[in-house]
């Protein structure tokens, strides 16, 4: 694949991720994603022969990896406050775009079960959530939590963050996110 083709494919993946965060799975089409990416439609069909399902699955994987890298960076920068640092970045993201930009993984997770032939998307969503859980669990184990507690906390933190993102968008308010920042801080004090 040529450099231009790779750039075009990546542009479509990133555009699909943004559109998922803005409009959800049902709010995007191949044509709209391609237009948003400023990519040639023919190239999009060649790069994604399995269509919308492949584009969305790759967008979910890419967005999940981007968030995982950011989470790891926050955890490395601050051993004791890494999770809070990551939450602060999400807080800013929500406020800076007036709650229009949610989580593309959450959007795909909610809507994929209602789509035909969405196995690729469901698998990508599950893999991303597992990746995030593993990163958090490993971090918490290093912070002297037992493996069982670290596992439960990692799942709880992800559920709280994703739920707060949905509530912030629904209420058009940062209050739910402020509440989970305090709630997660309280949870992390219990060992």
In short:
This protein has 191 residues and is an all-alpha fold.
Structure description:
Helices cover 78% and strands 0% of the residues. The protein starts with a helix and ends with a helix. The relative contact order is 0.12. It has 191 residues and is mainly alpha-helical. It has one domain: Tetracycline Repressor, domain 2, CATH 1.10.357.10.
Features:
191 residues
CATH architecture: Orthogonal Bundle
Number of helices: 9
End-to-end gap? 51 Å
Q: How are helices and strands ordered from N to C?
A: HHHHHHHHH
Q: Main β-sheet, in a few words? A: none
Number of strands: 0
Percentage of residues in DSSP E strands: under 5%
Shape assignment: globular
CATH class equals Mainly Alpha
What percent of residues adopt helix (DSSP H or I)? over 70%
Mean pLDDT: 93
* CATH T-level topology: Tetracycline Repressor, domain 2
What count of structural domains?
Answer: 1
Structural class: mainly alpha
Low-confidence stretches: none
* Rg: 18 Å
């Amino acid at each position: 694949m040529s450099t231009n083709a790779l750039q075009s494919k990546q542009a479509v993946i990133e555009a699909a991720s943004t559109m998922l965060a803005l409009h959800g799975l049902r709010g995007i089409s191949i044509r709209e994603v391609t237009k948003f990416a400023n990519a040639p439609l023919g190239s999009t069909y060649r790069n994604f022969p399995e269509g919308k399902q492949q584009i969305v699955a790759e967008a979910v994987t890419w967005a999940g990896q981007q968030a995982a890298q950011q989470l790891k960076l926050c955890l490395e920068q601050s051993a004791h406050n890494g999770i809070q640092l990551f939450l602060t970045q999400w807080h800013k993201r929500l406020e800076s775009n007036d709650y229009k930009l949610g989580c593309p993984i959450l959007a795909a997770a909610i809507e994929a079960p209602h789509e035909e032939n969405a196995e690729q998307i469901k698998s990508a969503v599950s893999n991303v959530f597992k990746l995030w859980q593993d990163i958090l669990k490993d971090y918490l184990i290093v912070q002297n939590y037992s493996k069982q507690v670290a596992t439960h906390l990692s799942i709880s933190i992800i559920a709280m963050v994703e739920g707060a993102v949905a509530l912030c968008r629904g209420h058009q308010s940062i209050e739910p996110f402020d509440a989970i920042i305090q709630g997660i801080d309280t949870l992390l004090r219990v060992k």
